[in-house]
Fold this protein.
Amino acid sequence: MEDKKTLFLTELKELLAKYDAEIYDGEGTCVYIEVNGVSLRYSTDELTAISSENVFEYDKDW
């Protein structure tokens, strides 16, 4: 049986491919999740981690 890390990364890889998405650093000030050319910006000033509880708390005014 695969470990949880491998299962998570496999599922994340599939989601990123399915939605033409990527996750990248905004030069230390934020994290971006780009989905099909549309970027969601997460400020690292207010957020220390992106989780299932706060994934919708991206910078909507950006």
Summary: Strands lie at 21-25, 30-35, 38-43. The chain has a mean pLDDT of 91. The first helix runs from residue 4 to 18.
